[in-house]
Amino acid sequence: MEYVFSDNTEPLKPSAIREIFKSLTDPDVISFAAGNPSPESFPVADMKRFADAIFDECPSVALQYGITEGFTPLRESVKARAKRRFGVGGDNDTAIITSGGQQGIDLTAKVLCSRGDTVICEEPTFIGALNAFRAHGCRTVGVPMDSDGINTDALEFAIKTAENPKLIYLIPTFQNPTGKTMSKEKRVKCLELAKKYGLIILEDDPYGELRFSGESILPIKSMDTEGRVVYCSSFSKILSSGMRVGYVICDNAIANKITVCKQVNDVHTNLFFQMICHKFLTEYDLDAHIAKIRELYGRKCALMLSELDGKLPGSVRYTRPEGGLFIWADLPEYADMKEIIKELVKRKLAVVPGDTFLCDNGIGTGGFRMNYSTPSDAQIIKGVSILADVLKERLK
Amino acid sequence: MEYVFSDNTEPLKPSAIREIFKSLTDPDVISFAAGNPSPESFPVADMKRFADAIFDECPSVALQYGITEGFTPLRESVKARAKRRFGVGGDNDTAIITSGGQQGIDLTAKVLCSRGDTVICEEPTFIGALNAFRAHGCRTVGVPMDSDGINTDALEFAIKTAENPKLIYLIPTFQNPTGKTMSKEKRVKCLELAKKYGLIILEDDPYGELRFSGESILPIKSMDTEGRVVYCSSFSKILSSGMRVGYVICDNAIANKITVCKQVNDVHTNLFFQMICHKFLTEYDLDAHIAKIRELYGRKCALMLSELDGKLPGSVRYTRPEGGLFIWADLPEYADMKEIIKELVKRKLAVVPGDTFLCDNGIGTGGFRMNYSTPSDAQIIKGVSILADVLKERLK
After folding, report:
1. Alpha helices in chain B, H assignment, sequence order
2. CATH code at position B239
């Protein structure tokens, strides 16, 4: 039969990345396309030990329904760590455990945005967030970025000209897909603009723990004294992405609404893995574990950059991230991105084309995203060679 | 600061049951209020064994991102079991793994219902579904039930008079909160009405495996030849509710839309527990395990019924379920339900007041829901005594 789908979901398309991810079953394809953590970063032995302890000590709690806000001890240990590490969370803030960082974004949009509202974003930006906003009937408006993050003049212009602006969505640290980090000054300015125009900032910080060089810059949320910033993060990049445990730290009033929406969404997040996360936060040297991941990613990023430096034609520009998972490359304007992607796929290299990350008003970014955490060293070297060959041929 | 919440979530209230659940920290309170499976039903030792095997055999798969539709082997084993046990699932149908049955309901509503549409429900019905519909901006219209399920004449009248009817939400087997089961004839009639008026049926079947007496009646989905029924179920009542693994079986076209919405909602369901469920479906005698749960609940239900039969005043009527988790009691019209609930709470017995389960047009059902799977035998006996004392005093 023919179906009539809802107004909000009718225009939604599957995420190009997820679709690429699905098609990567050919073991010969080198993928720079994923956003996956390295399997080397999973603390398997310790996780097994903690899982066994939960089965032995309190299986009836772990396997039973829990409360929607999350496992209370985990909410407390998450809040304590966010405060200690990043200065995040004030007296009126609380932590809600979500089913991955994605659910935090989705529920925040659901709670704050009505059909027809506008969400203002960095451009390019995370496709998962863009689709969440679209699925709530929101317009998305993109603001260009400088090398030190969003252009704040353009941001103010976008706010002033948007219809029903409601939310500013930002990934200030090791942004997806660009790998860029917003300067302290711009973070201050973004918060000022949000205040001036009565908007909420949704600060997405899944990569904040993954700095391997440069000076740490605190999240915007650390400067928030009035509950204007909703801070989303997760354990996906430091423990396991497959377990789907994330969190939101925000003002109690927003948290209460998020809780009601989460209740009707999935009742609560997998309780067993919430308890595992709590053990990692309280019975384990998580900082030492993260230090190892940082070192691994720093090494892999440096390898990819040195390969790019040595092999790519000079007309291609790319970012030099200080952390996170991604390098972004910009091609000269005359390049035909679609043809280049096709040719790369033919030679068995997958990258993510830039137009995936565009807002509703976006005009085709001729760039692409590369990930260095998932491919092996040999794959990084071989992949960059394929890329260089194709670009040299196509950018003549 | 003052927040302006979204149009759809502004009117949402926290679920009374979840709130009751949260307040049940007083160990002296006897709770007939939960919808929890008995902790005795959790196969802890086998789950630990399966978990260890996953940590040993394929941790990098289990802890990494998976695909949104769910772990492919689990999707296949779920579909095979649904077909074998309940005749559910045709050639054009597929199984999507969801984060509990609740997410299946929420995503189905999100995909099919636009703001202003009407969802037609049994009344009383599951509050989690009602709130999901409301969170998508839908009206809910309740249709009264007979002892053998929804009154189909009233259903047709409701369809004819509703504004933009889109979905019929039904829990045909061991309905929550009434414990009633819809007859075969009425299931046929519901499907006919859906077809006649061009509506989709959302069939929620979380308790279908829990029959402890009477003859099995196949789900409406088993008669669906054209993709008109979306079937939701879960492992919450047969393996573990805290792990949040459920599934939707529906036409591919709807499944594709659900997948896109799930992608922006939580990317995918906890992969580790999806793999555990697959092991329970393929390396374990799940039927034998469920037979034990059925026997346990049959015994507990019989105990509660015999206590009610012996102690309650004759003016109180209640259902005699053949499976599931709940007994529903109706009080005479003159009873003051609010006062009775207050008095029960004072004497440390929690039940769920009937008005919790009302649709938007509902007029105060003077009944209440009791659960027999969670309390111990001693608690069932003592709880019914408290109930009988209060009702005898209040229904004079």
Report:
1. 16-23, 44-57, 59-62, 72-86, 100-112, 127-135, 152-161, 184-197, 252-266, 271-282, 286-311, 337-346, 377-394
2. 3.40.640.10
Whether B337 is covered by a domain: the verdict is yes
pLDDT one-digit tens code per residue, A330-382 = 999 899 888 898 899 899 999 999 998 999 988 767 899 999 999 999 999 99
> Phi and psi (nearest 5°) for A23?
-80, -5
CA distance A76 to chain B (A): 17
**Gap from A55 CA to chain B (nearest CA, Å):** 6
* Contact between B124 and B365 (Cβ < 8 Å): yes
Asked whether the beta carbons of B281 and B209 are under 8 A apart, the reply is no
Q: Are B261 and A135 within 8 A, CB to CB? A: yes
Instruction: Determine the residue among A244, A248, A259, A356 to mutate to test chain B binding: the one whose Cβ has the most chain B Cβ atoms within 10 Å.
Output: A244
Q: What is the DSSP string of B355-371?
A: GGG--TT-----EEEEE
> Is B271 within 8 Å of A243 when comparing Cβ atoms?
yes
Minimal Cβ distance to B243: which of A42, A106, A270: A270
Contacts of A261 in chain B (CB under 8 A): 9, 12, 135
- B5 to A112: CB separation less than 8 angstroms, yes or no: yes
> Count of alpha carbons within 13 Å of A117, Cβ hemisphere only?
23
Name the phi and psi angles at A233, rounded to 5: -150, -175
The total of structural domains in chain B comes to 2
Residue B227: closest C-alpha in chain A = A1
Partners of residue B35 in chain A, C-beta under 8 Å: 65
DSSP class of B323? B
Pairwise CB contact (< 8 Å): B63 & A243: yes
In a domain, A345, yes or no: yes
pLDDT tens-place values along chain B, 396 residues long: 889 999 888 777 666 665 665 556 678 899 999 889 999 999 999 999 999 999 999 999 999 999 999 999 999 999 999 999 999 999 999 999 999 999 999 999 999 999 999 999 999 999 999 999 999 999 999 999 999 999 999 999 999 999 999 999 999 999 999 999 999 999 999 999 999 999 999 999 999 999 999 999 999 999 999 999 999 999 999 999 999 999 999 999 999 999 999 999 999 999 999 999 999 999 999 999 999 999 999 999 999 999 999 999 999 999 999 999 999 999 998 898 888 988 998 999 999 999 989 999 887 678 999 999 999 999 999 999 999 999 999 987
Task: Please report whether residue B175 resides in a domain.
Answer: yes
A13, A36, A64, A164: best to mutate for the B interface, most B CBs within 10 A: A64
The closest CB to that of A254, out of B3, B56, B270, belongs to: B3
Q: What's the distance, Cα to Cα, between the start and end of chain B in Å? A: 51
Decide if B65 and A21 are in contact by the 8 Å CB cutoff.
yes
pLDDT of A231 reads 98
State how far the Cα of A281 lies from the Cα of A286, in Å rounded to an integer.
6
- Give residue A292's region: left, alpha or beta (phi > 0; psi -120 to 50): alpha
Residue B148 tokens read as 């053998």
Q: Domain check: are A214 and A116 in the same one?
A: yes
Query: How much is the ipTM here?
Result: 0.96
Over residues A231-262, the pLDDT tens digits come to 999 999 999 999 999 999 999 999 999 999 99
Residue of A nearest to B101 (CA): A266
B272 contacts A273? CB cut-off 8 A = yes
Hey, of A4, A7, A9, A74, which one would you mutate to test binding to chain B, going by the most B CBs within 10 A of its CB? A9
Tokens of A219: 């999240």
Residue B97 near residue B69, CB atoms below 8 Å:
yes
Which of B235, B255, B282 is a domain's end point? Answer: B282
Structural domain of A369: 16-43+288-394
The reply to whether A89 and A215 lie within a common domain is yes
